[in-house]
Specification:
2 helices; rod-shaped
């Protein structure tokens, strides 16, 4: 009956279990008045965005160019086919 958990000795709160104090731990603290949380944020945002956009130009530019070429050729063909000359050339009778 001598090994039951009885809770007769207080062991302390979390992290303070009554053992020897820890040595060799260095903590650095910076005052909130000395911090600059947005230091360089606008500069970094502009140049990082520009770098990312320019790195994507070869991929987006090729797709945009092909899409524009396709759109202009199809629009011209559609305009021709819906014109009087296009109807006469295709032989469509309405």
């Amino acid at each position: 009956m001598g090994g039951a958990a009885g809770g007769k000795k207080y062991m302390g709160w979390w992290g303070h279990m009554g053992g020897p104090t820890q040595r060799g731990v260095v903590t650095y603290i910076l005052s909130p008045f000395e911090q600059k949380p947005f230091a360089g944020a606008a500069h970094n945002a502009v140049f990082n965005t520009a770098r990312r956009v320019t790195s994507q130009i070869p991929y987006v530019g090729v797709a945009f160019g092909l899409g524009y070429l396709l759109y202009t050729q199809i629009s011209a063909k559609h305009a021709y086919l819906t014109s009087k000359a296009g109807h006469a050339a295709e032989g469509a009778a309405h």
